[in-house]
Design brief:
With 285 residues, this protein is an alpha+beta fold. Helix content is 19%, strand content 34%.
């Protein structure tokens, strides 16, 4: 079997140094649609270095995401065809606010391997700390189609009942035609998001937006709408990727306030509100 769960879990973590500066943060913010309108004081918190606040989802690209999902898929015990790999979900835990520039140590390992029958799920965990202590923990849930069925632990179910009642707030976020081209400059060079021929071979009518770009757009909408624009209030953020987004579409972000958290759904307006993100929760102070 291409995935040896015991060997993967026992493998030594991979550790590397990552660095970032204000230019990386500014580029990331532009890549998720910040700066519209360009002179809005609220947007300048994301686009002007003298006022810079770091949106916590920047953690998914800091240091180009090193050690990263792709390197994790080459860990001992894991030999998979990248064409069978899907990014199923992402969970972020913040230990303290992310500085606009820094140097840190990123430690990556496979934290769990689950048998879903027709697929295996790998939980790729990256823990990042600097000289002052832990900064954040990222978990990427990676589905590998066709690699399940060995009788292993199915793992927890992350599906939750959808929110009920009318949302407290709803915003629409337009995605520019060149959004994926800009976002990929933060480190995800997968041609699926830029090359029409590659996208068609992968089964899509045209290049799709990065799931983690939608992830960032959504967090910004929640922070700006319900958290007073205060990025430091975010404590955690998790989602399941439920569908694709095509550049040029509009995201409908619906938000429900709960104690200490905001529940969110995201859909594509132009495709009859086709689900894009599900089981999405932003935890906050």
């Amino acid at each position: 079997m291409p995935i040896d769960a015991a060997k993967a879990l026992a493998a030594e973590p991979r550790t590397g140094e990552i660095t970032w500066n204000h230019k990386d943060v500014l580029l990331y913010h532009l890549g998720i649609g910040a700066g519209r309108p360009a002179t809005d004081p609220d947007e300048l918190r994301y686009t002007l270095e003298s006022r810079l606040h770091v949106l916590p989802s920047f953690a998914t690209v800091a240091g180009n995401g090193s050690p990263g999902v792709i390197s994790g898929l080459s860990m001992p015990g894991v030999e998979v065809d990248l064409a069978r790999v899907l990014h199923g979900g992402q969970t972020l835990r913040l230990h303290r606010p992310i500085p606009a520039a820094g140097t840190a140590t990123a430690t990556g390992r496979i934290a769990a391997v689950y048998d879903k029958g027709k697929a295996a799920v790998l939980v790729m965990r990256t823990e990042v700390a600097d000289a002052e202590g832990p900064l954040w923990t990222n978990d990427a849930q990676i589905f590998v189609r066709g690699e399940g069925g060995w009788g292993g632990d199915r793992g927890p179910s992350h599906a939750t009942d959808p929110p009920t009642g009318d949302p407290d707030r709803t915003v629409e976020c337009p995605v520019d035609e060149d959004q994926a081209l800009l976002y990929r400059l933060s480190g995800d060079w997968n041609p699926l998001h830029a090359d029409p021929d590659f996208a068609k071979r992968a089964g899509f009518e045209r290049p799709i937006l990065h799931g983690l770009c939608t992830y960032g757009i959504t967090l910004k909408a929640v922070v700006d709408t319900l958290l007073g624009g205060d990025v430091t209030r975010v404590r955690g953020y998790g989602t399941r990727f439920a569908g694709v987004v095509y550049p040029g579409e509009t995201l409908r972000v619906c938000m429900w306030r709960e104690q200490g958290r905001v529940r969110v759904t995201v859909s594509a307006v132009e495709r009859d509100d086709a689900p894009v993100l599900a089981d999405t929760v932003v935890q906050h102070s």
